[in-house]
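ok, trying the design again with the full structure, not the truncated one.
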């Protein structure tokens, strides 16, 4: 990232510009800067389910999805996920709230469907009303919300989120951590969510 400082006369302004695509560099960012802190990735993904004004965890629990949007930095890492991958979901500032397995690829908001009140499949944005899901960008493929279907093994309400000192956290929507902190986090979460592998 590159920073520049501008003098406006009334004060100084700070701007930033990405020199590398954050999607391409997220693995390095999440694994720490010192080589001694890295270890082989365990094959399980960390998901940051943030921005409550843009997405609603209770709806994600009910309908089985994770999502990200507002720009490529937020939605691009969803493309790391493949069917069958295990995801551990964390709400920033709260803790871990769910674990499940991915059941399909990322889908743009306008094409994603969910069961409506009568059980018939409907456009997701007609079913979901707990947050904006970037509706204002529904026609913009870069800023649109993207949804990934997930079959949950265990979820808890936000107020019962699991958090401990030393738990792994990352601001990317999805990341594949390669750090001992991630291994420690998973070991603790598997105790907190003993049914983590029971999908279906």
């Amino acid at each position: 990232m590159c920073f520049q400082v501008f003098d406006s006369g009334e004060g100084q302004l700070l701007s930033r510009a990405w020199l590398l695509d954050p999607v391409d560099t997220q693995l390095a960012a999440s694994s720490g800067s010192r080589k001694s802190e890295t270890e082989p990735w365990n094959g399980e993904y960390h998901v940051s389910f943030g921005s409550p004004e843009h997405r609603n965890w209770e709806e994600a629990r009910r309908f089985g999805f994770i999502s990200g949007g507002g720009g490529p930095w937020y939605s691009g890492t969803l493309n790391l996920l493949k069917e069958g991958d295990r995801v551990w979901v964390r709400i920033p500032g709260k803790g871990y709230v769910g674990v499940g397995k991915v059941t399909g690829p990322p889908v743009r908001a306008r094409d994603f469907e969910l069961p409506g009140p009568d059980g018939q499949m409907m456009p997701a944005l007609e079913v979901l009303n707990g947050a904006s899901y970037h509706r204002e960008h529904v026609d913009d493929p870069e800023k649109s919300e993207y949804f990934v279907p997930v079959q949950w093994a265990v979820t808890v309400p936000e107020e019962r989120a699991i958090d401990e000192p030393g738990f792994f956290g990352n601001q990317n929507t999805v990341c594949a951590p390669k750090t001992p902190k991630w291994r420690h986090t998973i070991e603790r979460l598997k105790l907190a969510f003993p049914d983590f592998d029971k999908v279906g």
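Keeping the full-length input from now on. The longest helix spans residues 180-192.
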